[in-house]
Amino acid sequence: MSFVKYLLPALAATKVAFASSDCGDTTLETQVDADGIASCSTISGDVTIKDTYSGTLALNGIKKITGSLKANNATGVSSMTADSLTSIGSNFTLNELTGLTQLSFSQLNSVGNIYWEALPELQSLDFPKGISEAGDVSIINTGLTNLNGINLTQVGDFNIEDNKHLESININELKNSTGVINFSGNDDGLNIEFPNLYNAKGLTFRNVSSVMAPSLTVAKSQLGFWGTGLKNFTAMNLTQTGDLTFNDNPNLNNISMPNLQTVNGGFIIKLNEKLDSIDLPKLQTVGGAIQFTGTFNELEFGSLNRVSGAFNVQSTKGNFSCSSFESEFKQKVEGKWKCDSTNPQASTAAGSTTGSDDNSGSSGKSSSTSSSAAMANGVYPATGIAAVFFALAQLF
């Protein structure tokens, strides 16, 4: 009896120790494999789901994965759940899981990076705890209609692309982006809200209906809108950007940036046929070229004192005086000068790229440097950036 008396506590202690033990790199081919690591509170390494896995996958018991959770071309996986997992230290990678319909991680709140691509049947996320910490986030070609459950406060690159059913995004807590925020190829009616975002490396938008970023003060490398359904863009607190572009937004009728002071790159407003007025009361410095072409009637540069590139302003029906602009601003422009308030071709693609031919009208050193660095991240659409520099190149 005395032997049993001491043996039972010893066995109990052994069981507790085993349950809390670390496990290493793991490959899962069936649910039996997943059940085999349920006693591991921590996986010290990667969890890899084989491409032959089929059916549902439940990662029960595991609280932490120090490495990556990854599945590539596992087309037979229909569901992934985890009841205790709080963090993934490295990458959460799901690629070509074409049969995945459920993603439920009830306790997950921290991920190194998110890389999801080709998940066409995944329509929603079940992340009730909410992912508040992540590095880069890339979500491409899914069936998601929203990003509920991704509640980031800070992010690196944030790339949301080709999600054809994505209609709304509201990431209330996001305050800072150290990389590029890019939206392209999603639902044309996509509404985006970043109510607390005040600082971003860059933001680029295509195929969106509205963008709200009322707290934004700085977009370091770029802020750009191409081919959107945007009717109005208001950034009351924006003071500084890199390249700044509004290109081919047919419904855009208002741009309000009353506190914008510095554009550290090229500044393009063109082919926005409903935009009647451009008012930039505090704009002082443009580090590249200015190219404003279209049908706008009114144009105000209240505080402009330096343009490092060319100045190319053309309208089909402008009520502004080019002679007044010339006397007030031409000496502040380092590149070539062109101003025409009644050019009938200004609203066309050909007319919007007509300008001078001096190299000093390029987007400038600071602009090309910042844009090249942003492109190196490989996040926002190359066609958009190419369009910026192609348009500027046509000035010369």
TrEMBL record:
Signal peptide limits: 1-19
Protein's cellular compartments: Cell envelope
Ranges of Low complexity composition bias in the record: 351-368
PANTHER family: RECEPTOR PROTEIN-TYROSINE KINASE, SPORULATION-SPECIFIC PROTEIN-RELATED
Pfam families: Ecm33, LRR_5
Annotated organism of origin: Penicillium chermesinum
Region Disordered: start-end pairs: 336-368
GO BP: fungal-type cell wall organization
GO CC list: cell surface; fungal-type cell wall; plasma membrane
Protein name (record): GPI-anchored cell wall organization protein Ecm33
Glycoprotein as UniProt keyword: yes
Keyword field: Glycoprotein, Signal
InterPro entries per UniProt: CWI-Assembly_Regulator, LRR_5, LRR_dom_sf
Composition skew (Polar residues), residue ranges: 340-350
